[in-house]
UniProtKB/TrEMBL annotation:
<dbReference type="GO" id="GO:0051894">
    <property type="term" value="P:positive regulation of focal adhesion assembly"/>
</dbReference>
<dbReference type="GO" id="GO:0005925">
    <property type="term" value="C:focal adhesion"/>
</dbReference>
<dbReference type="GO" id="GO:0007155">
    <property type="term" value="P:cell adhesion"/>
</dbReference>
<feature type="domain" description="Ig-like">
    <location>
        <begin position="12"/>
        <end position="121"/>
    </location>
</feature>
<dbReference type="GO" id="GO:0005096">
    <property type="term" value="F:GTPase activator activity"/>
</dbReference>
<dbReference type="InterPro" id="IPR013106">
    <property type="entry name" value="Ig_V-set"/>
</dbReference>
<dbReference type="GO" id="GO:0005178">
    <property type="term" value="F:integrin binding"/>
</dbReference>
<keyword id="KW-1015">Disulfide bond</keyword>
<protein>
    <recommendedName>
        <fullName>Thy-1 membrane glycoprotein</fullName>
    </recommendedName>
</protein>
<dbReference type="InterPro" id="IPR013783">
    <property type="entry name" value="Ig-like_fold"/>
</dbReference>
<dbReference type="GO" id="GO:0030334">
    <property type="term" value="P:regulation of cell migration"/>
</dbReference>
<dbReference type="GO" id="GO:0030425">
    <property type="term" value="C:dendrite"/>
</dbReference>
<comment type="function">
    <text>May play a role in cell-cell or cell-ligand interactions during synaptogenesis and other events in the brain.</text>
</comment>
<keyword id="KW-1003">Cell membrane</keyword>
<dbReference type="Pfam" id="PF07686">
    <property type="entry name" value="V-set"/>
</dbReference>
<dbReference type="GO" id="GO:0045121">
    <property type="term" value="C:membrane raft"/>
</dbReference>
<dbReference type="GO" id="GO:0009897">
    <property type="term" value="C:external side of plasma membrane"/>
</dbReference>
Length: 161
């Protein structure tokens, strides 16, 4: 047996901390598209990877992911946006054939606690329409840019007179 030279050696295994945790998973209809919001609490600045999938007929189908490969049938119809503490999946031309259990899986780089996973059952007839307010928040940067550029546009218009 070898005695420990320093009893205060850090044990990396004991220093594991949750870097992010999924707080809420919700779904709504935005026109003809399905929107799935995966809200999380982030305690690190490490890059975040995600995977949205659907389970139907007892099979998992990857819709959009940075963790694994998305299935061909979803590639052209799905896109994801990331905001602060929110990852949104948009699935265009949503129909009843897209119903099933949707899963959001998040993992922060160097987070050794494993992936965070949350599920939601999506049935087209039971979905509510997405609130206009959240759409406004989603497009705030464009709105802000437009408002900030108005004086500039007016100045250019004034000069052209």
């Amino acid at each position: 047996l070898f005695p420990l030279s320093d009893p205060c050696l850090p044990l990396p295994v004991l220093q594991v901390a949750h870097c992010q945790m999924i707080k809420d998973l919700s779904a709504c209809l935005l026109g003809q598209s399905l929107r799935v919001d995966c809200r999380y609490e982030n305690k690190t600045s490490n890059p975040l990877t995600y995977e949205f999938s659907i389970t139907k007929d007892n099979r998992k189908h990857v819709i959009h992911s940075t963790i694994s490969v998305s299935e061909n049938i979803y590639r052209s119809r799905a896109n994801v946006t990331m905001h602060k503490n929110l990852v949104c999946l948009y699935l265009q031309s949503f129909t009843t054939s897209d119903e099933g259990v949707y899963m959001c899986e998040l993992k922060a780089t160097n987070d050794y606690t494993g992936n965070q996973i949350k599920n939601i059952t999506v049935i087209k007839d039971k979905l509510e329409k997405c609130a206009g307010f959240s759409l406004l928040i989603q497009n705030t940067s464009w709105l802000l840019l437009l408002l900030l550029s108005l004086p500039l546009l007016q100045a250019v218009d004034f000069v052209s007179l």
